[in-house]
Design brief:
alpha+beta; 3 domains; six-stranded mixed β-sheet; five-stranded antiparallel β-sheet; 40% strand; globular
Length: 341
């Protein structure tokens, strides 16, 4: 009798798992069930990129690693018509010590508080007539801005409700038959027609509202959508967006840093390195080598942010595209990463 009950429970778990996958993953994107025939596809391009194809669906990550974060597709609504106010007019409910994304493009200076973004994760914005994709995954503290150009066309993005390595999977609104899933931490298409394509990163910083207001007193702050102010007084995750314990499984763990240590990750010729932000702030400026590149990581007090530069042989410095993240999230996707701490 005892074993019969165990067999029944195991059967219920298996059936429930299949139904769960069908409901939250496969049906939303017409993905094949893991275990279907998988083919290897080699693209005839300069780098001869190799991807997987399962039942006609191209992907670069194992389908079984895609998990539901809970809400369905667009259950976390993106902001598609952002509403900004001048820095001097920010509402009292907005925490001036709270962090967010500082984005400076030409003469436009904008701040996207995490206090607002945590409720939306994606903001489809426009600056000087061009679409800008502002993204934030609170589980990983990855705040990244992209040029949302997919196959030559600028499109909007939405929240898929899915995760990979505990990180946001976005989807492009290219039309139902052309949608792809994109890893936010890498900016790369991972499932669908755009698999292997990468979104260009637009330089930005993670700073506090106070720091942004000092550096950019004429700037503006997103506080709502559709022409009116929202109410973002309740902050999930116990109110502390800097101390969110990993909730979902990841492929790789590394104890060189605390899981929630904040880093900036960079890529150079296919190699990866993370710079512990607190360590850089402590010394002010770090001169480093990364492969054949000379690197300077510097805390720029006037912006309140750490920035990373590549140094040319003539001494010229070019700012590098860096991905801000909790350590656990970066190393899960880039397990071979080097680290400055």
């Amino acid at each position: 009798m005892k074993y019969a009950i165990i067999y029944i429970l195991v059967g219920m778990i298996i059936v429930g798992s299949i139904l769960y996958y069908q409901r939250f993953v496969r049906n939303a994107y017409e993905l094949p069930v893991p275990g279907s025939d998988v083919n290897v596809v080699v693209l005839e391009n300069d780098s001869m990129d190799t991807f997987l194809e399962t039942d006609g669906v191209r992907h670069s990550i194992p389908l079984e690693e895609i998990l539901s974060g809970g809400p369905p597709k667009d259950g976390i609504p993106s902001i598609d018509d952002p509403y900004f106010v001048p820095v001097a007019q920010v509402p009292v409910w907005l925490d001036s010590a709270g962090e967010g994304i500082s984005l400076i493009i030409d003469d436009v200076e904008r701040f996207y508080p995490f206090q607002v973004l945590v409720q939306h994760e994606i903001t489809n914005d426009q600056i000087n007539g061009k679409k800008v994709l502002v993204t934030y995954c609170p589980l990983c503290k990855t705040g990244v801005v992209f040029d949302p150009t997919v196959r030559g066309v600028q499109v909007e993005f939405g929240v898929s409700g899915k995760l990979w390595n505990s990180n946001l999977l976005m989807y492009d609104r290219s039309g139902e038959d052309n949608e792809s899933l994109w890893s936010q931490i890498s900016g790369e298409g991972v499932v669908g027609p755009a698999t292997g394509e990468k979104l260009p990163i637009i330089l930005s910083d993670i700073v506090t509202l106070d720091a942004f207001a000092v550096a950019h007193p004429q700037g503006e702050v997103i506080v709502g959508e559709n022409g009116r102010e929202g109410r973002y007084t309740a902050i999930p995750y116990s109110g502390d967006l800097n101390d969110i314990d990993p909730i979902f499984p990841v492929n790789h763990k590394d104890d060189r840093l605390d899981e929630n240590a904040f880093i900036l990750g960079v890529e150079e010729n296919g190699h990866f390195k993370a710079y512990h932000v607190d360590a850089v702030e402590e010394v002010g400026e770090v001169h480093d080598t990364f492969g054949d590149a000379m690197i300077i990581a510097r805390f720029e007090e006037e912006e309140g942010a750490v920035r990373i530069y590549k140094v040319a042989t003539d001494g010229a410095q070019t700012r590098m595209q860096a991905t801000p993240s909790f350590w656990f999230s970066w190393v899960a996707v880039h397990p071979e990463t080097q680290l400055y701490k």
